[in-house]
From TrEMBL, chains A, B:
PROSITE patterns named among the record's database cross-references: HIT_2 (PS51084)
Motif (Histidine triad motif): 91-95
Species this chain originates from: Telluria antibiotica
Transmembrane segments: none
Sequence ranges assigned to domain HIT in this UniProt record: 6-106
Protein name: HIT family protein
Source lineage: Bacteria, Pseudomonadati, Pseudomonadota, Betaproteobacteria, Burkholderiales
Annotated Pfam families: HIT (PF01230)
InterPro entries in the record: HIT-like, HIT-like_sf, HIT_Hint
Top-rank taxon: Bacteria
């Protein structure tokens, strides 16, 4: 049984999921500047990675790893950014973000001030790969 | 044998380390706004978590976990932020950052625009715990 907190937007997740099991979900983030941005969202309302029992912690770590692999395979980024912040929504989730030299913030983190506008054609090309990313993620998680 | 890249500031790490073995180092970051900010720096010059063989990946994950525990124990943050970015220095390292409602950027990530000035007395009190944090980290890593 998972712990749910009323009013927590990740306990009441409404976004479409690419992977969904009793422990975690994987979603694609709809961010105009970052096609391929994805998240692993733990189902239980826990705050920190270190709140998890070991088996769950390793399961979550494996999920973030698999997601990173799928993002690298399909999005071919220059760098991957992986982060668990949760200051706004203190419900455990991991961001996996493909980064490119021409993205809006590079080399700063995506949470810094934007440094440029990525050409529409470049973003459109990346956006076209998102369905393929969804398939690659589903395959990665089906093979466990 | 570790791989070194000339000119990489993390291959040529000069900061004092709290933990130092053949696989990784743990350092305390000298950030005026974030006493207790710490990093795990992988020794080999690899770019992404997913570039590591499984045993190393799990070892690094365990190191980040131990560091998070020590930071929580001593710094008693409201939230911990954990991130592997590496856009500026593409040499695998993890940030572990204790966050508080009154810190310079909360609830935004520390890489966003600052939102306030934390009172000096508050920062001084947190800074005083840093030696204790170093001891707690050393203990955590000695017990493996």
């Amino acid at each position: 049984m998972t712990t749910r907190v009323a009013g927590c937007e990740l306990c009441e997740l409404s976004a479409p999921t690419v992977v969904d099991n009793d422990k975690f979900a994987v979603i694609l983030v709809d961010d105009a500047n970052y096609p391929g941005f994805a998240r692993v969202i733990w189902k239980d309302h826990v705050c920190e990675v270190s709140d998890l029992p070991e088996a769950d912690r390793l399961l979550l770590n494996d999920a973030v790893y698999k997601l990173e692999l799928a993002v690298r395979d399909v999005m071919q980024p220059l760098k991957v950014n992986v982060a668990s912040l949760g200051n706004v929504v203190p419900h455990l989730h991991w961001h996996v973000i493909p980064r490119y030299a021409d993205d809006a913030h590079f080399p700063a983190p995506v949470w810094a001030q934007a440094q440029r506008t990525t050409p529409d054609a470049v973003l459109a090309e990346r956006r076209q790969r998102v369905p393929q990313l969804a398939e690659a993620i589903a395959r990665r998680f089906a093979s466990r």
